[in-house]
Design a protein that fits this description.
The structure is a homodimer of 318-residue chains.
Chain A (H helix, E strand, L loop, with lengths): L1 E4 L9 H4 L4 E4 L4 H5 L4 E4 L7 H4 L8 E4 L10 H5 L3 E3 L6 H16 L2 H9 L15 E5 L3 H12 L3 E6 L3 E4 L3 E5 L12 E4 L13 H6 L5 E4 L8 H9 L5 E4 L19 E3 L10 H17 L20
Parallel strand pairs in A: 1-2, 1-3, 3-4, 4-5, 6-7, 6-10, 7-9, 10-11, 11-12, 12-13
Antiparallel strand pairs in A: 8-9
Chain lengths: 318, 318
Amino acid sequence: MLAVLSGEKHPPDMHPIEQSAVVRYTDAAGLADALRDADALFVYDFLSTAVPGAWHGSNRLRWLHIASAGVDPVMFPALRESDVVLTNSRGVFDDSIAEYVLGTILAFAKDLPGSLRLQQRSTWQHRETERIGGRSALVVGTGPIGRSIARLLKAAGLRVSGAGRTPRDGDPDFGEVRPSTELGDYVGEFDYVVAVAPLTEQTKGLFDANAFAAMRESARFINVGRGELVVTGDLVDALREGRIAGAALDVFDTEPLPVESPLWTMDNVLVSPHMSGDVVGWRNALVEVFADNFWRWRAGQPLRNVVDKRLGYVPSTN
Amino acid sequence: MLAVLSGEKHPPDMHPIEQSAVVRYTDAAGLADALRDADALFVYDFLSTAVPGAWHGSNRLRWLHIASAGVDPVMFPALRESDVVLTNSRGVFDDSIAEYVLGTILAFAKDLPGSLRLQQRSTWQHRETERIGGRSALVVGTGPIGRSIARLLKAAGLRVSGAGRTPRDGDPDFGEVRPSTELGDYVGEFDYVVAVAPLTEQTKGLFDANAFAAMRESARFINVGRGELVVTGDLVDALREGRIAGAALDVFDTEPLPVESPLWTMDNVLVSPHMSGDVVGWRNALVEVFADNFWRWRAGQPLRNVVDKRLGYVPSTN
């Protein structure tokens, strides 16, 4: 029996799976009950925080798949300590998010928000813009999304370094990878700082007042990872006081971003609603990744994208 | 004697040249008088239309340099038929304009204008976006700016073709180059259509109702060339009636764009004020190109960027 935690909508393209297993769709309220007889759980509503509270109902669960790259919503102690195999949707969002990041970098460099504001007032006002070629970017997070970002930014002419858990040289995508724990030592070397690390105990609040103070005043900060990587109050202060030049934020510690957040109204901030990876067809792509694992599971084959529950992410083969 | 047609400001970095020649700065009103004794004219105010009307004053002029890539403001019959050598600022804007074009493509694909409008209303509204990888772009204009655009778009994952005066295969940047006179036959194959051709009798009004009718309804049109490449009324109609999906326009047949233009207020149009190539330092770069030619001219060496006055642009070596 497969339990599926749906959001407002059921996942698409489930018909073949429904032919091969008993599938029980549930919302958060029914999850504990649905888990009682479930062998597997597909967390399609990947932003739901309902799983820990319903976990007591699980009885025979052996596999949990989440329709996202970040697994932080299900990294609670009882799951970590269980034998339940956790898999994620690694790969679905890589290239879309990379394009999104490049789009925000170009928006800053070419002052596209300024052009749009002037257009709204039918005002012709020439400004000088910036090159992106030759500028430097630090990608904090060296998983597949970070790698795709690095490759695309390099193709567009930026110089790119990485920051991750394990410092190293000669990485195929990043060249040098710096230790993310020592961010303040080198973050000032970069024009753009991109946050795409998995949210773990080590990365929570990584971007705090110290990190922003160490950045260039001309630096732009881009977050396509998780809102909790950032101490939001410190970011707001840094932006207000001109300690950094701008931010493009697709993720927030509270989502939807509350209407009273000062981030909405800051001229040097681009807010988007957790959509950087969500290209047309993304929901089908997420079910495709799940289905691939489902058929492996039915056939007793090894699953793909197995999360290392101590690390909090799928270890890279690079 | 060197005459310099300045705009509001004199060009920077002219001191070395002032040490070596009599330099007379003039505005449009004084141009005919200044031309009387001038051996060379530097049109620094590159959008000025004053040169044809002042030409009768020229007496001993041998060289005219214009601080732009497009030479259409000085392509009047008397100059064409004279022995005056015409040079331009080829090369200064190539990579900046290419970045600008990629920025507008990403803005469309990721609906950045929509995000900014929603942000202004503090509204969280998830949308699905588009990939740019695998999409197709037609670059109309195969000079150095068009080539830089082609290279950058290809690096970012788009498939790129060119359109120009001379159809050919195996072009190093474009692969296939289609004949721009037959635009309607193939423009429907592309997701993005970029106008960057020089303005000549052959290209004036190239983008008319027929061309827009032949484009995909999902196509976006980007103009970083000259406003007169487009029949503006036809473009407005095509955008209003949904015959194309959007336009990013940096140049217009009248500049500044008049406040009553419907383009200002269309949601699917990005207006910018003829600035796509103007990165910080561009004025110095323009004078650098002029100065390089000035020293060649003083030394009796061949000039760079000599315009073929029959064609209306510097012939490509490719």
